[in-house]
C-alpha cells in the first residue's frame, strides 16, 4: 500500500501526519511503530491521522498514536500541526476549526503570524478521571518512585500528567525517573512525567518524559499541565512562557473551571510517499 504523509513538528516534537479523507487508511499498531521508527521508518514521536467529521458540529476528527503504537487522547503540539495540515492541504479554508479527538472536541485557530492557538479544554484534577489511584484530591501528592519520595501534581489535559517541581530542569532525573513514573502502578493508564523549573511567576523551563514516546523536545499538553499545576500551587501566574528544549510555548489559564489556551508554532518539513507492507 502506498501512503502519502507530511512530516511536521511543533518545537521539535515531531509527527507523521496522514490524510485519511482522500486516501484509505487503516493502520495496525505494527505499521504505526514502523512509521515512527527513526532507523527503519520515517521517525516521529506521534502519528496523526486526519479523518472526516463523524458528527455535524465539528469540522474534522483526528486520531493520535504514540511512537509505541498506542492510541492516545490528546496532543497539544499535534493539534497545532493538525490545523496547519488541513489548511495547507486545502481540506478547509476556515481559520477557526473544531475537531473531535479521543478526549472530546477542541477549538483551534490559525494566526497570520504562523502561530496557532488551541483551546485545550478544562484541566481535570479528580484522581479517578485522570486516572490516578489516590484517596486524596490534594493538588500536591506524594509518589514513591522506586524508593525515592517525589511530590507530584496529577492532572489530566485529556491525557494524564504527573508534574513535579525541580530546581534545575537540565539536571532533573528525567531519564531515570521518567520511565518509572510513566509506568507507575498508581497510574493505571500510564502517565506523562513532567519536570518543571520555576524561573519566575510567568516563566518556566520544562522537560517531559512522554508516555509511549520517551523524552521529547517539547510536549504541548505537558506544558499546559505544568502551568496549571504551578498556578494551583501558587507558584505561577497566567500567562506563562514555557521554555522547552525545542523552543517556547505560551500558556494561558484563568483558573479552575476555565479552559487552557496554548499558543506556538507548527511547521511542515516535507511531504512524501511510503510503501507499507
Ligand atoms: N506530544 C504531545 C503529547 C502526546 C501524547 C502523550 N505522549 C500521551 O501519551 O498522552 C503533546 O504535545 O501534547
UniProtKB/TrEMBL annotation:
GO CC terms of this entry: cytosol
InterPro entries listed in its UniProt record: DAP_epimerase_AS (IPR018510), DAP_epimerase_DapF (IPR001653)
Subcellular location(s) of the protein: Cytoplasm
Site (Could be important to modulate the pK values of the two catalytic cysteine residues) location in chain: 161, 210
Listed EC numbers: 5.1.1.7
Catalytic activity: (2S,6S)-2,6-diaminopimelate = meso-2,6-diaminopimelate
Active-site residues, as the UniProt record annotates them: 75, 219
GO molecular function: diaminopimelate epimerase activity
Enzyme class at the top of the EC tree: isomerase
Annotated substrate binding sites: 13, 46, 66, 76-77, 159, 192, 210-211, 220-221
Primary role: Catalyzes the stereoinversion of LL-2,6-diaminopimelate (L,L-DAP) to meso-diaminopimelate (meso-DAP), a precursor of L-lysine and an essential component of the bacterial peptidoglycan.
Record note on quaternary structure: Homodimer.
NCBIfam families: DapF
Recorded family membership: Belongs to the diaminopimelate epimerase family.
The name this protein goes by in its record: Diaminopimelate epimerase
Gene: dapF
